[in-house]
Each structure stands twice: as structure tokens, then as C-alpha cells.
Write a structure and sequence with these properties.
With 102 residues, the chain is α+β, with helices and mostly antiparallel strands. It is built from 2 helices and 4 strands; from the N terminus they run E-H-E-E-H-E.
Amino acid sequence: MREFLVEITTTVPEGTGQDEIDERRAAEAVRARELAASGRLARLWRPVGELRSIGVWRAADEAELHEKVLGTLPLRPWMTLTVTALQPHPNDPGPDRADGTP
């Protein structure tokens, strides 16, 4: 699976009732846990003082990311996305180093 950096800004449409907002947010939390458990959502952050999210997501390709992963989020109709495909860097100190060393 490939990894993608996804920046998400969610804007609730004017006139949306609080009940709908609360229901979608609750459903979003459930779906995020499901995607994390399946390995599709690797990490998720919110920059300090901002309402956008930044995450590392996994899918076979960008089409699958949009259709079968991000497209399943209950808040997706209200989201603006910026997607950047990632590839391993040879100097990455993380656990998946290209040279196999820890």
C-alpha cells in the first residue's frame, strides 16, 4: 500500500442543524477508528490553533484513497482535501528504513 499525506479542512454548510452536525461527527469518529484498525489511517494530527487536520492515509493508489477510504467518511461532503503521494526517503529514521536497520 502507498502512503498519502492528506490535509483536510471541514466547513459545515450554513443552515446545517446542530443535530446533523453532532451525528456526522460521531459517525466520523467511528469510521476513523475502523479505518485505523484496517491500516488505512496511519496517523492524524490537528495543528495547534487550527481547525484543519493532517494525516497519513494508506491505499493502493490515489483513486482507491478517494473512492474507498476518504469517500467513506461521513463528513466528506463538507471537506476540502489536499492529497500528496509519499514515497520513502533514504534518510528516514523510522521503523521501515530502506536499509533494514532499526
